[in-house]
Amino acid sequence: MNKVDFKKAFDIGYQEMIFTANNDETFIRIKNNYSVPSSKVSSTIVHINGKLFEENRFWIFFTELVEISSDIREDVQIELDKFEIDTEDFDEEAFIQHLIDEITDKLEENEVYTVLKEMEVL
What we know:
Elements: H1 3-14, E1 16-21, E2 26-35, E3 40-58, E4 62-79, E5 83-84, H2 92-108, E6 120-121
Antiparallel strand pairs: 1-2, 1-6, 2-3, 3-4, 3-5
């Protein structure tokens, strides 16, 4: 598949994605843009909705999520690291895992902080 055709297909399925975490208590909306010349996807967290949590650790193995804020509806602009795509062999699983890792890392560095457990794409 050439890059232009790939972009058309990518935009249909991945231009906007919603992730859920924390037993469907936290929702994160991502916008993705595939660049034809570079074959890279730039992604931005644009909205966070739901509850924010922090993690309390007891001893070594036990943790619990503690709600720190509820009913959050926050429009944000948090840039994620770019992801390079091979248009001949698109690895959807690796792309989604990249987004999950990036969302987790960037939210720890941001003022809209939350712990994210068991995140998945809707």
